[in-house]
Specification:
mainly alpha, single chain, about 65% helix
């Protein structure tokens, strides 16, 4: 059997690889940081964001808002990944 006679792998035509954008990675990283912060709050009652930026400060509100927006974006990202492929 010659190399040109090898069977064709149709997996790429059935399930295309979904590309992950830079925005996807940024949102995931922010969401992970937020999740770790909430883990610290739950386990040790320690809010790292408030400790770094000050409790109730503008900067801490910005960080919390970014985490919330990243979570909303990751819902879209998860739906995009779960879409049926053709």
């Amino acid at each position: 059997m010659k190399p040109s006679d090898s069977p064709v792998n149709d997996l790429d035509t059935v399930v295309p690889i979904t590309t992950v954008s830079v925005l996807d990675w940024i949102a995931l990283a922010i969401l992970i940081v937020g999740g770790l912060n909430w883990g610290l709050v739950g386990v040790m009652n320690f809010d790292l964001v408030a400790a770094i930026f000050g409790n109730g400060s503008f900067a801490s509100h910005v960080v919390y808002t970014l985490v919330g927006l990243a979570a909303l974006y990751c819902i879209y990202f998860a739906l995009r990944l779960s879409r049926p492929r053709r």
